[in-house]
Each structure stands twice: as structure tokens, then as C-alpha cells.
Design a protein that fits this description.
- There is one protein chain.
- The chain is an alpha/beta fold and about 375 residues long.
- Helix content is about 35%, strand content about 10%.
- A 9-stranded mixed beta sheet has the order 7-6-5-4-3-2-1-8-9, with helices on one face.
- Helix 1 runs parallel beside helix 2 and helix 3 packs parallel to helix 5.
- The radius of gyration is 20 Å and the shape is globular.
- It starts with 15 loop residues before the first strand and ends in a 25-residue tail after the last helix.
- The structure holds iron/sulfur cluster (2 copies).
């Protein structure tokens, strides 16, 4: 394995590690941000390798570990991995669907020092939630799981991914978060990567629905000050400026996939010309400092106009590289979600058009499904 090189000294330390422990999941959400080509169980890293990765992450300065997937509790060693985080002083956040084996492992996770739980909720109405998640009887399991989290005294965040199938339930998500004793609610409009990109026409809300959801959140923030924090992620296609993807490429986040590829963001594998290094061949420090996938879009030198001379270039770092590739056909282009992009008007028109059409059926997330990658001709350039 290569040693960390001197180049690392000039690069800021990563803050968070997104540990995608497995792609296995009992749910099949059509907006899932996992790649279309999901890793099978036989390719997953073993316990010792994850423990070594966590140790290297702590050494690099990482503070938070998001134990994610897929469904992380599908792994038999989730308790050991969580215990390793605690021993290393890493703040552990379990990102879970709350179904399958999640409830049966929760007490043990708490006992070894789990710090926080983020529970996904697909809908408020059980039938609607289960249609979106593609799993019957999931909602009661989630409610039981949430009750146990708060009974243990663990801080609970609810994560609701918003789209045209549940945008009428935003008020309901807020009420549900209060009822379950959550400290935080994420009202996260769908980001169109991975399975969400394939399902974009089925998921895209219209502008009036988006505006209404923002008004509901703003009113609830006032009403619930001191009781519930509500994070709002607005949909890129209707935004004025893009978000800083992962806090800026190669600046804050390291994402390790189930098989051990290391990515600057969870969707980065869609940029197929990038070279991703693997934790079994390089140390995490070497990857963070030197892997071609991390250096490709770190900083601002790679930027084209209008980003290159824009005074927001160190705020949003040009937006999302994966979205730039998907929509503009060039990963180094300005994210077309930005109103300053020459393609922005076309992107907005596309969203308006798709939201006005009858939604097609969901293409559910499935391991081994032969889903064609989004067509090149979808690019707007
Ligand atoms: S988005 Fe849905 S399918 Fe994807 S990992 Fe989360 S719960 Fe599972
Ligand atoms: S032009 Fe580039 S840097 Fe400026 S706001 Fe748009 S995406 Fe951000």
C-alpha cells in the first residue's frame, strides 16, 4: 500500500466519511442516489478492512462517520464497525431505513456508543410511503424503530426525500417529526443522480408545488423554533444557484463504496473517465491527497467560464460535476442548474415539461437490474 505523500500537507483535512457499508437494502426507492450498477454482497469489504479505513480516517482528521448504504444494518458486523468508530472518537451517524434487522440491532448499537440516527421516511400515509419504497408493511416497522431510538435517548433526524409523489405531505412530515420526537427534519427535494435520474419524469414536481413546500417549511421553522430544526434542500432544476456539491469537490467529504472504491461524492462514478482508487491498494490519506478522481475538480483551476470569473466560485465550487456531465455532456462545465449557465433555461424548461406530463411508473432500485444508463441524447448541449 502506498504511503501518504507530502502533497497532503497543502490540502484541507476531510471532515466527514460516508461509509457505504453495503448496497443491500430491503427498500427499492426510485430516487435512491446509489449507482445503477449496485455492488453485490460478495464484493463488499470485510470487517478488518473497514476498521482499518476508519482508523485511517480518524488519523486524517475526519470527525463524523455516516454509516450508510443501502441499509447498513444488513451487515452482520455493523455493531463491531460502530464500536470501532466509538473507540476512535469518531461521531457515528447511522443512516437507516429502519426496516429489516435495524430494530433488532439498535440496542446493541446504542450499547457500543452509536451517537445519532437518521431515519428515512418515504411518506406519511403508510400506503403512499410503501408504494414509494416498494416494500409492504415498512411503515409500522419504521414507526416502531423511531420510538425505540427516542426511548434510548439517541438524537433522531428524519430524512424525507421530496418529489411529486409525496410533495403534498410536507406538512405531514413536519407533524410526524414532532410526534416522533425527532430533533431535526430534512425536507430534501430529490437530487437527480443515480436512480433518481432514471426516474426524473416520475419524480419532478412543478414550480408551484415546490414554492408551496418552501412556504410550509418557512412557516414551520418559525412555529417550531427551539423544538425542531428543519433543513431544506431545494430542487436544483428550479434553483437560482447550485449547491456546493459535497461541500466542494475533494474538500470535506470522502465516500467509500461497499467494494472499497473511494469517491469525492456519492454519484462520482457516473463520471466514467475518472480514475477511482481503492482502499485495498492505497491508504485513505494517499487517496485524499493524490487520487486522480480527487484532484480532477478540487479547487478552481479546472473551471470554465462563467464559473472561472464568478465571485461565487469558492461558495458553490461550480455546483455538481455529475449533473454537469449528465446535462451538459461535460463534467467541467458550469452546473446547468445555475442560472448563469447557458443551458439553464433548457434545464428549467425540461423540468416544467416533465412535471406537466402524466408521471410514468417508477423504475425501482434493484441489485442486478439491467437498467440502461441515461441516454447521451438526454444531454442538452
Ligand atoms: S434511498 Fe431507499 S433504496 Fe436507497 S438506500 Fe435509502 S432506503 Fe434503501
Ligand atoms: S457560474 Fe459557477 S461559480 Fe458562479 S454561481 Fe454559477 S455555478 Fe456557481
Amino acid at each position: 500500500m502506498n504511503a501518504l505523500t507530502p502533497n497532503a500537507a497543502a490540502i484541507p483535512a476531510p471532515v466527514g466519511l460516508l461509509a457505504e457499508l453495503t448496497h443491500r437494502c430491503p427498500l427499492r426507492c426510485p430516487y435512491c442516489s446509489n449507482p445503477l450498477d449496485l455492488d453485490r454482497r460478495s464484493r463488499e469489504l470485510d470487517t478488518a478492512t473497514w476498521q482499518r479505513v476508519l482508523t485511517e480516517a480518524a488519523g486524517l482528521g475526519v470527525l463524523h462517520v455516516h454509516l450508510s448504504g443501502g441499509e447498513p444494518t444488513a451487515r452482520n458486523d455493523i455493531v463491531e464497525i460502530t464500536e470501532t468508530c466509538a473507540k476512535l472518537g469518531l461521531y457515528s451517524n447511522l443512516i437507516t431505513s429502519g426496516v429489516g434487522g435495524a430494530l433488532s440491532k439498535l440496542q446493541a448499537l446504542y450499547d457500543v456508543g452509536l451517537d445519532h440516527v437518521q431515519l428515512s421516511v418515504q411518506g406519511v400515509d403508510a400506503a403512499n410511503a410503501e408504494k414509494i419504497g416498494g416494500l409492504k408493511n415498512a411503515q409500522p416497522q419504521k414507526m416502531e424503530f423511531a420510538a425505540k431510538v427516542t426511548e434510548l435517548g439517541l438524537p433522531l433526524t428524519l430524512n424525507s426525500v421530496i418529489h411529486r409523489g409525496n410533495i403534498h405531505e410536507v406538512e405531514g412530515f413536519i407533524d410526524l417529526a414532532v410526534k416522533l420526537g425527532a430533533k431535526r427534519l430534512e425536507v430534501a427535494h430529490t437530487q437527480y443522480y443515480g436512480w433518481a435520474y432514471v426516474n426524473r419524469a416520475a419524480l419532478m414536481p412543478n414550480k408551484a408545488q415546490v414554492d408551496q413546500s418552501i412556504r410550509i417549511v418557512e412557516a414551520a421553522r418559525e412555529r417550531l423554533k427551539g423544538q425542531l430544526v428543519i433543513d431544506l434542500v431545494v430542487p436544483d432544476y428550479y434553483a437560482k444557484y447550485p449547491k456546493a456539491c459535497a461541500g466542494g469537490w475533494g474538500r470535506k467529504l470522502i465516500n467509500v463504496t461497499p467494494q472499497g472504491k473511494v469517491l469525492p461524492c456519492h454519484a462520482a462514478e457516473t463520471i466514467s473517465h475518472l480514475e477511482f482508487w481503492h482502499v485495498t491498494e492505497h491508504s485513505l490519506g494517499d487517496i485524499w491527497a493524490n487520487a486522480p478522481a480527487f484532484t480532477a475538480y478540487r479547487g478552481t483551476d479546472w473551471m470554465q467560464e462563467p464559473c472561472r470569473s464568478c465571485d461565487r466560485r469558492e461558495k458553490d465550487w461550480g455546483g455538481c460535476r455529475c449533473q454537469a456531465l449528465a446535462l451538459a455532456g461535460d463534467a467541467a462545465a458550469t452546473d446547468p442548474a445555475c442560472s448563469l449557465s447557458p443551458l439553464h433555461a433548457k434545464v428549467r424548461a425540461l423540468a416544467v415539461e416533465e412535471a406537466a406530463e402524466t408521471p410514468p411508473d417508477y423504475t425501482y432500485r434493484t441489485i442486478g437490474a439491467n437498467i440502461p444508463a441515461p441516454r447521451k441524447e438526454d444531454a442538452l448541449s
